[in-house]
Amino acid sequence: MTDHLSPSVLDALADGELSGQQHAEANEHLSRCSACTGNALQLSLLKSATAKAGRRYAPPPHLQERLMRLAAEERVRPEPPHSAAKSAPSGGFSGWFGMLGWAAAAVLLLAFAATTFVQRNGRRTDIASAQNAALVNEVFDQHVATLAANLPPQVLSTDRHTVKPWFQGKIPFSFNLPENLPKDTMLEGANLTYLNDRPVAQLLYNIGRHRVSVFVRQKPSAPAAEFQAGHAGFHVMVFSTDDLEMAAVSDVDPARLAELINLIRRAQT
Amino acid sequence: MTLLSWKRAALESVPQTSVFEELALPFLPALYNVAFWLSRNPVDAEDLVQETILKALRGFSSFEPGSNFKAWIFRILRNTYLTSRTGLAAKRTVALEDELGDQDEAGAAVYPEAAIERETPEMNLIRLSDRAALQSAMEALPAPLLEVILLCDVEEMKYREISAVLEIPIGTVMSRIARARATLRQALLSNATPIREFRA
After folding, report:
1. Cβ within 8 Å, pair A6-B111
2. pLDDT by residue (tens digit) across A47-72?
3. Cβ contact B5–A89 (<8 Å)
4. Which of A226, B97, B108, B134 is surrounded by the fewest CB atoms within 10 Å?
């Protein structure tokens, strides 16, 4: 090794990524090259200084408590009753003690079954609300990002016959757009975007000066129940038809948003 | 006595803490730290971590026991970040490799010569000890360089783990690490913000 060590070798050396052979060769070079030794030392110092400077933010105590509570709600279910029964002593007592043991087992089994039923229902509710919260976050983020970008839609339109055909071949489903919109409501255009890694049509409406995003996607196998939510001053309404699931988000009056949703819903039938 | 021991045995069979909690909670400080660096504010960092934990909880059945939990949960964090407001803004940045045009086809890094100095000025070592200057330099890094340096230097992940978290080839990981360090060094040398903005 007559040349200096390459930058990639120096980085890999600092990061402990060299193989045994490469490490030996690098060390052999460093033993007779002060320039590379200096560079290796600097990279090593930079790495450790970055590590220290990078450990900067500690989570607030309330976050840990909140997450532990969430995790506790999702805690793994107790062992099924048959395995609990296995742990019961199998002999050494009879008569009343034996009967008492079985009676206790029966009581525990019933209690376990009841607890499991309640917990499962609760868990289903928790999961559904977590999924709803995630959906609200995603559509809200996308809507805000669209507003912040302040770019024209990918397909511009004042006519539903321009927007719908534009999605042909871009999304694996089709949808209808309402023909007659209220007086101050206008279809501005649409974007092709993604929610949970799946293609989604983002329809962009204006209601007065308020902008509205309506995300249209193929109905998932486990669709969300229809719901409404508020998020940072915006309203999110999730609704579905036979084949589609849609989420509308805007800061417009919720009644006006609901009016638009009803029109879109009716257009699908 | 018999009944009591029976009950005790039944109770002992109920896990007091879940496997998920045992695996995930130790990473909470690291997740929050990286989330804060990426989102640049405490509220978004909390939201990002909470959403990550919820997603990880829901998808925990897909986690293969014995595989790399840290890489798995950081990948969820990173994907969650990408769909967040700040992440969406970062998504719109020009692809780093395209912008710099300094990576070959195979993904091997072609380093700017300035990344490595052939001299070791003492001043550099002094500046390295200035934590505030280094933090400022890190704050000015573009997101693709910041995340790679956080995973490599702060989280001490191996290149292949970083490659899995960021879903990029190892050659790109190496290239970004080199660029991140070169940018940090130049920022420390000039005592100014890094040289280039990558935003479109």
Report:
1. yes
2. 989 999 999 999 998 888 888 887 77
3. yes
4. A226
